[in-house]
Amino acid sequence: MLRTLLAATAFAALATAAPLTPAAAQNFDFANMSDSQKSAFGDAVREYLMANPQVLVEAINELEAKQQAQQADNDKQLIKTNAKDIFEDGYSWVGGNPDGDITVVEFMDYKCTYCKKAYDEVSDLISKDGNIRFIVKEFPILGQQSELAARFAVATKQIDGDDAYAKMHDTLMKARGNLTVESLSQIAKDQGLDPAPILKQMNDDKVTEVLRQNYQLAQRMAISGTPAFVIGGQLLRGYAPEAAMAKMVAEERNAE
After folding, report:
1. How confident is the model at residue 124 (pLDDT cuts 50, 70, 90)?
2. Which has the minimum average pLDDT: 8-17, 32-41, 89-98, 194-203?
3. Separation between Cα atoms, residue 228 and residue 105, nearest integer Å
4. From CA 6, how far away is CA 29, in angstroms rounded?
5. Helical H runs in the chain?
6. Residue 163 contacts by C-beta under 8 Å, 6 or more apart in sequence?
7. Sheet holding 94-96, edge to edge
8. What percentage of residues in the chain have a pLDDT greater than 70?
9. Is the bond preceding residue 140 a cis peptide, omega within 30 degrees?
10. Rg of the chain, C-alpha, whole Å
11. Average of pLDDT values for 235-253?
12. On the CB side of 62, how many CA atoms lie within 13 Å of its CA?
């Protein structure tokens, strides 16, 4: 990758210094140069870059900008292709303002440190904005405790409903220490829930299907870590502070 970048930068640098004709540019092939031509070319490139080192920085910045723009375009297409499964899957919990004009979807894991860090940021964003529809996608990828907690949360929703899930989700996002059957059962009791039917439901095919669908969606979206957010038509992989997410929300509103 770096070698390709340097070669492209070198060619661009020489073209800038001494513009090539279209025919010469089209026929330029470093691999087919003789050893003496390659040596002369290398000397010329080195001389130019030593005299103009900013060219390399500019080229790298330009390449990164183009790659980011291409990634953003690709992500928008992924969101369009998978829109129904992202925004209207029929089983994920919907919070915030259900009638909000912008939907924020979070792929999260209860054992993810950055998910817990993002929890307060997301909560503040939703509270301050007041017009954001928020969807949670359980995406346990960090081991046995992650899956145990996700199954318990999904089972809580299926047995006791959305309000119970919302309280369970908030508690699990704030939880520290190990997540076990015993600790999860105690959380349920503390919230006035009977843990027995939830524990039974955890291994039901309906819970397994929710997680399977979320895994498959994440794979199609090229999401491999948590947290990850879909904010309107944009995809954010990783943690971002509230201000950055608020900026994306504003961009989505302005784009409508």
Report:
1. very high
2. 8-17
3. 8
4. 15
5. 2-17, 22-27, 35-51, 54-81, 83-87, 113-129, 144-160, 162-174, 181-190, 195-201, 205-220, 242-255
6. none
7. 94-96, 132-138, 102-108, 228-231, 234-237
8. 82
9. no
10. 25
11. 96
12. 10
Residue type, 59: A
Residue length, the chain? 256
Query: What's CA 139's distance to the chain center, in Å?
Result: 12
SS (HEC) of 146-160: HHHHHHHHHHHHHHH
Residue 188 amino acid letter = A
Q: CA geometry: angle at 111 spanning 135 and 181, to 5°?
A: 100
Residue 95's pLDDT band (cuts 50, 70, 90): very high
Question: Is residue 72 within 8 Å of residue 233, measured between CB atoms?
Answer: no
Residue 105, beta-bridge partner list? 135, 230
Report the amino acid identity of residue 211: L
CA dihedral 197, 198, 202, 207 (to 10 degrees): 100
Neighbours of 128 (CB within 10 A): 10
Q: Of the candidates 83, 90, 88, which has an alpha carbon nearest to the alpha carbon of residue 221? A: 83
CB 13 within 8 A of CB 48: yes
Instruction: Give backbone dihedrals phi and psi of 239, rounded to 5 degrees, phi first.
Output: -75, 145
Indicate the residue type of 98.
P
pTM score of the predicted model? 0.76
Q: What is the pLDDT of residue 2?
A: 47
